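U., I forgot to send this yesterday:
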Amino acid sequence: MSEVRFLRRAEPGVREESVPWVRTRLRTAPGTAFWLALLVALTACLAGAFPRAVDRYEDAGLRRAAEQARPDRTSVEVYAPPPSVMLSPREREDVLRPELLARQYTKVRAEVPRALVLDPEQSTYGVRTTLDLPVPDPWLPRPTGKPAEVTLIAQTGLGAHSSLAGGRLPRADEDVTSAAPELEAAVTVETAKALHIKVGSVLHAPAAGRTLPIRVTGIVTPRDPEGAYWSTRPTLRTPSLVREPAPSVDMHWLGALLIAPEAAPVLLATPGRPERYWQLAPSAGSLRARDTPDLRSALASLEAGPALRKVRLRIDGPVTELTQITGQTEVLTDLDEVLAAYDRFRAGVAPLVAVAAFGTGTVAVVVLLMAGGLTAERRRAEFALLRARGASLRGLTARLFAETAVVAVPAGALGLAAALVAVPGGRLRYAVAAAAAVTAVVCAALPLRTAAAHRVVRVHTGREDISAVRPSRRRTVAELTLLVLAAGAVESLRRRGTSGTSGDLVSLAPVLVGVIAALVLVRLYPLPLRGLARPAARLRGVLAHLSLARAGRTSASAVLPLLALLTALTTAAFGGSVLAGVQDARDRAALLAVGADARVETAAPLPSGLPDRLRGSRGVSDLSAVSVTSDAKPENGAQSLPLVGVDPADYAALSSRTDIGAFAATRLRAGAAGTPVPALAATATARTYGTRPFPVLLPDGSSLTVRITTVLDRTPAVAGSDFLVVNREALSPAMARPTALLLTGQGLDGAALRRAAPEAASVHLKSEERRRFVDSPLQTGAEGVYATAVAAGTGYAVLALLLSLLRTAPERTALLARLRTMGLTRAAGRRLLILESLPQAFLAALGGVLTGWATIRLLSPGVDLTAIALPAAEPAATAAELRTDTLSLAIPATAVLLLAVGMGIGQAWWSGRRGSVQELRAGDAR
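Result:
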């Protein structure tokens, strides 16, 4: 334990005494130690939780992306060509036997790069026909008269991945050959239902010179139908209705017959060209966002690299002329495309989160430095006395470091432990590094501040208020350097946007703008005070003059609290505007998708009484009935586009209310008989047909001649880029009947609308469509982290204001006590403290509003919120831009003013309770 000697040199006969420094300080000021530990623990917890929270939502986003991509895209398929016809029949059969395939499966898995972790439960192998086999059995369904087709699959693990719904699993002898007279097979429940197959049914497939009977011995139910075993090849589980290529209109069923793995050699007798395959399913639980570069490299190696050569060597053997003729083993997967799309998505989200992280981190560091500065200021006389009595600067700073470390290190460890418990998963080393950095800043703040203040031994110091101290040359150079950095960051962001190539300087841009504003405001702060001091001196009473004089004597070190407040307010304004922009973009995208607050539509005309019924539904304020046909053919040509028939007044009101292609109702009023019908058109449609009259052929055989009078970017009834909108009265009675109803209102009841609508109608609500845009944990996680960072930054800003006021609290309390002995009332004392604190608070609030507004205006051209707001939408139609959010600017600034007023009132009340005598004790250091 570090010790300090109170006697520099022992007198003769007097025993030299020393006391433990750290223990004495902790016993003397336990409250200070407790609050410091709490601050360190909370900051270390937030710092340690941040990287783990980012890792957590990024990993969850990657797994969701893989889940949405489905196993048919994420599985890695290794397939070998059919056995060479140059081999003997026996050798060709042996190539397809399960024993050899199992050994090759083990070798293939061994050659998979370590970055690609496989799921052994969902991975499998087998033999399947590459050409579909027609089955002419007349009892099978034939939608257009063409016989059904089947694919024969001998996949291992059928019993482990399914349960029997009827019958038994297929069997085959171990030494079966291609000359086997019959096959046994199983089908899934869905295949059996679609193709009318029962246990005992016999299908007849073509074979070499004969017909191969295939007897269905069992019907199985998949245990995990969405897993890779069943979904890598969806036909394995679910049959499909295949349409013939145009111009044919025929279609036929395609299903899968599951045979025993031992029966694979029989497939050689069919014209299906059987191939061997090894199906490798990646483990979804092992996918981590930070591993995507290694995983993409591993996939590239498997598809066309060293790993592919090794796999080919294991399966095909050395390259020969025969293998070059018959083909070699290939690897196919779309997992690399899924990873690339995810990386693009994450690259659009990460810079926005980094802005909040840098802003909150800056405010937290400033608060930690202010905490050290507060302690150094309170103990200035103590340190000055120690230096005057011979304490070395190195020894003093070492003891202060030990004193702080005894409190900060356990608190930092506790905060780190809380972060690890609160946010499971994620990388440990980043959390430890962040918590260690917080602890190091706290441990170094007090010693470094003391070393700077007491480098020269002195007992008394001159005035250090902001009005008396002139900025040094070094400070001027530092401020100019920060100005250049901030300008470069803002210009970089405006030019390149929030892309991954913009660097950390771009993420620091809002912070640097706040730093420059703080430095500028601190320089300008004395000017308005000096201007107000003279008029205030002429007023009756001393409160205004005294409060301005006290505000002008604020310490020159007030740049730190002002920097914390401005940075927090700027980050809060930026973050609030980001979150508000995300919400607005989703609302707008949902509105564009639906066209109104709700939409009811059918392919056929709606019942005539439906509009009146829906108008009476809860929440419906207005309704517009439209008729939509997608088969209108301009100029009687082959190209078709949507044509919308509307009531001009209702539809114009809807367009204006939703701000989607607003127009004047008079633009659709019909002219004299025989003149072209006026029409609204999309930009692309107007570009194609111009403003000349042209005929439009409708599906019922009628036609009308239209002339485009107004060009719109979009319209509520149609979401596409081509459309025509005409007055419904110009259409034939059949085409004029409404097929869609667009409803507007608040609190629409989707269940009630669906009950009132016909059974065949589809009902879409804007609120339901909006929820669809939040389809990834990467979005929700990034929003949560951003909101938490902004809230934490705001909390640290409040703490910075508290520390700033606490720094001068003893001096103000003593001043208030002295003034009360001269007759100052308690109400006047409250007003004095409030007026004294208002200039700085008002400066911070006004500066925060202006800085936040300027930052958003400067950075908005380079910030695109589309990635975090609308990953599934079309960027060209629903681009999300950063806009200034008034509430995000006003609420934090107002909170700063209210807090300053509240603290002034609270301090006046507290000092009044203690009494003037206690505050003016002789010898008290204030």
